[in-house]
């Protein structure tokens, strides 16, 4: 709604007085508005609040009355009218035209709430000026002075008010993730250190919110997007100035996407959010994932990629690759805060490593050199030392703890040396990391007990002949068949190894193990009883809960 204000520097706001009450009820319909009092029943002669079609009726009236000016020098939202112009002389003419129409239509304004011929005013909760759009100081003051929540309702109210200004805050979804967890259904109220930090950090970010530029549709737009473990982020820009920020906490299956897919998903969500800006004219996509440069040249795509590429190709875009250290804005949206906040939440006393940098034999000199400016690839952030986007870990027990966590902690599967090293390399840096990983992995007791040594295969011999029918069976799938009228595209084949009798059971390629097990009991066990042995290949359906 405010996107058309670019280039304007003089503004007027007109607020209608009791807008709904300036619309007369249709004669004969007054009875529909009847309300009961102790003195009897009364009916509204003008349109009251609370009628289902009242908002649309009033908005339709305003659009009809000001139809000649909307999109040229007027923005209207219910009873709020904004008049914008490029200079004062032009503005006086625009103002006169609007007032004449309001007088003709007998619509009256509330003078106390009107603002005339100014370069800066509050409209719909935003500060509107020639420089751009900012947050309303009064609303930010309310957020800043918001007391610590004591129940879910108060958290939901704070989150709702803060979300109104989410377009001004980098990585809002990741910042607010601890609060989002609290307001989920069937989750009891729990206010811990993570929630307290998120609560205070959102207050700080909104207090220092940037001024967003107004879009100029005559110039090209630019998008920077990036993704991290739990969130995606993007920024819409023109000539280096941000127009809007976008962020989203990813959940469900998206959490398991590889890095390439998360990068593409961030791009897709950004395009969906800002498509009204991007469709008319060619724009630039900046990314630090080099493989996105070759998006148009890929010949083999899975279903998800094909769907995404089909959507992306509806836009007139150009992709430009930026190294991660150059793509500072989007990286900051998704990485830095997530890493530090996660470590601080999971490792008690994590802040103590700040004190170890000064005298550390690996990072002491570099840490001192980065006191004021970056030193090569190293720089300081919040008292921590980073090498590009990786946290530098000084010599301490923390190194061993991180290796053990990456190897066998949480959801880690006691990976080998190479995979454990890859997990650590994504977020951390210290000299001779490989040597530390090798030493700790080789001493892992769980790995020594569980991982048997691979022995050479023995001599292949034929399976023994069963002693009777349906004691020993074999099973497999025939896939890739034309789809039947009922949508079946595969056959589940079960063969008795004694009599060679076979059952051919139609099914879907996408059926999971539980459905195949159901077919097995329905079509085989019901007729022939339970077999003693089953021969099959290592299909995922058989290796699952079958």
TrEMBL record:
The keyword DNA repair appears for this protein: no
Domain Integrase catalytic, first and last residues per copy: 465-546
GO biological process: DNA integration; proteolysis
Swiss-Prot/TrEMBL keywords: Endonuclease, Hydrolase, Nuclease, Nucleotidyltransferase, Protease, RNA-directed DNA polymerase, Transferase
Entry annotated with the keyword Protease: yes
PROSITE patterns: INTEGRASE, RT_POL
Residue stretches making up the Reverse transcriptase domain: 1-128
One protein family per Pfam: Integrase_H2C2
Residues annotated as signal peptide: none
InterPro entries cross-referenced by the UniProt entry: DNA/RNA_pol_sf, Integrase_cat-core, Integrase_H2C2, Rev_trsase/Diguanyl_cyclase, RNaseH-like_sf, RNaseH_sf, RT_dom, RT_RNaseH_2
Superkingdom field: Eukaryota
Name of the protein: Uncharacterized protein
TM ranges: none
UniProt cross-references to CDD domains, sorted A to Z: RNase_HI_RT_Ty3, RT_LTR
Single GO MF annotation: peptidase activity
